[in-house]
Amino acid sequence: MSAQNSIGITINQLQKMRDSNEKIACLTAYDAAFAKLLDHAGMDVILVGDSLGMVVQGNPSTVSVTMDDMIYHTECVSGSVNHSLVISDMPFMSYSNIDSALYNATRLMQEGGAQMVKLEATQRQTEIVEELSAYGIPICAHLGLRPQYIHKLGGYHAQGTDSDSANELLLTSTTLEAAGADILLVECIPAKLAAEITKTVNIPVIGIGAGKDCNGQILVLQDILGITPGKTPPFVKNYMQSCSIQDAVTNYIKEVKSSDFPA
Ligand code: KIV
Q: Catalytic annotation on 187?
C-alpha cells in the first residue's frame, strides 16, 4: 500500500514565498517521529535525502542507498506529514537514462508518497528533467557539490570556485529551469555565485553551504541536533545547545525566516 500525504504546502506556495522574499525552511527527515515533529513545527519542506545512507545507515557515502531504501523511508515520512512538502531523493544510478528515471520517480511518488523528486544534475540531465516534467513529476535539481559523485570528485569539496566552473553552474541553472525543474538546490558553492543563480532564475533556490542569499536553506536534521555520527560540514549550526529538539527545530525555522541563518 502506498503512503498518502495530504496536500499541504504546494510548489505554487514555494514559488509565492520566493516571489515575496519569504525564506523557505527545509530540513531532512527519514522517519515518522521526526517527520511529525518537523511538520508540527511548520517546516516548509522535508527532504527524505539519500544522506540517510550516512546518518541512518552509517555508511561512508550516499552511493550505497537503493530505491527500496528510499521508498521505505519516504513512505515513513509522507504518511506522517500534513503540512510540509515532501521531496524524495532519487538514489545513485536510479536516473541514468530516461526510462529508469521515469520508472523510479513514479515509484517514489506512487509507493513512497513523495510530492517532488530530487536528482543530482549537470546539463547532461536536461533531457531527463524535461521528460519527468512533461509527465507531471515535480523536480528539484541538485547542483554544485553532488555527493553521489564523491568517488569521481575525490572528496566533498566546494564547487564553482573558479570562473569557468561558476559560469558552467550558472548555465546549468538556467538550462534546467528551462527544462522544467521546479526548484534548484545548490550545495557548497560560493555565496556570491549562489546569489547570482538566485537572482538569475525565476524558481526557488534552496542553499546548503551556499550563503545567505538563496530563497531558502536546508540542513541535515542530525547535523542541527548535534547527533551526526562522525564529522559535520563547517557550515552546519548545532541548534541543540540548551534546549529541546522541538525548540531546536522551531529556532531553525525562525532563523531561516529572519535570515539570521546562515550567519
Ligand atoms: O541527501 C541529502 O540530505 C541532501 C541534502 C544534504 C541537501 O541532498
A: yes
